[in-house]
Design brief:
The strands form two sheets. Strands 1, 2, 3, 4, 5, 8, 9 and 10 form an eight-stranded mixed β-sheet that branches. The chain has a two-stranded antiparallel sheet with strand order 6-7. The longest helix has 14 residues. By secondary structure, the protein is α+β, with helices and mostly antiparallel strands. Helix content is about 20%, strand content about 35%.
Length: about 220
């Protein structure tokens, strides 16, 4: 058996585990569950385990994926429960299977943002948000490897839907995951730069699904 892939949830208090700590957590969980990860060869061997799209701290996910290799064949139906039992609260393994797609084929993310406002009317905020995100371009200043630069994030938003509830505004969007990569946090950063009067007082994003270029679910 070659490469395997997990789909897992990272919610609750686990959203505050950084990507590096998550990788260490996963490695320890495999060990505690009785699974031996395969290591690379060379002078500095490391476990064959990787996450195609690392999560930002504070972002939840119900569809994250992790690729790995084991030293021996295992029961893929049994693995999720055994591995979940070795995980901290908030990390739940949903599936384990042989990958159907390469990580480079992951193109879009479906995300949901919970925009909370302390005092401003939610219906008014939802209406203003629709107008803002419907603009032909949304140029913001963002950090790059070469420093700061301007970038138009609008082409990286495939679709966006906004609705006002009783306690918060829900922003549900399909955004580009790779080439270009759009971190959902930039949806709020754009508001703070361009329209601070409608920027939320608190926001949390959750990844809902991952897609290939043709909008088939990435597996």
């Amino acid at each position: 058996m070659d490469k395997l892939r997990l789909r897992f949830e990272k919610t609750g208090r686990a959203v505050y585990i950084s990507h590096l700590d998550l990788m260490h957590t996963m490695q320890r969980a495999f060990s505690r569950a009785g699974y031996r990860l395969k290591y690379s060869e060379g002078f500095n061997p490391h476990p064959n385990i990787s996450a195609p799209l690392p999560l930002s701290v504070g972002t939840a996910s119900i569809c994250d994926v992790l690729d790995f290799k084991l030293t021996e064949d295992v029961d893929l139906n049994e693995l999720p429960a055994r591995l979940t039992a070795a995980m901290p609260e908030g990390i739940v393994i949903k599936e384990c299977y042989e990958p159907e797609r390469k990580a480079t084929e992951l193109k879009y993310l479906e995300v949901e943002g919970r925009y909370e406002y302390d005092e401003r009317p939610l219906q008014d905020m939802a209406s203003a948000l629709r107008d803002f995100y419907a603009a032909d371009e949304i140029v913001i200043t963002r950090k790059t490897k070469r420093g700061e630069g301007e970038s138009d994030i609008r082409p990286a938003i495939r679709s966006i839907d906004i609705s006002a509830g009783a306690e918060h505004v829900t922003v549900r969007a399909v955004i580009s995951a790779q080439e270009p990569t759009l971190n959902p946090d930039l949806l709020v950063a754009a508001l703070r730069q361009k329209a601070p009067e409608i920027a939320p007082d608190f926001v949390q994003f959750t990844r809902l699904e991952t897609y290939c270029n043709n909008m088939e679910i990435f597996r």
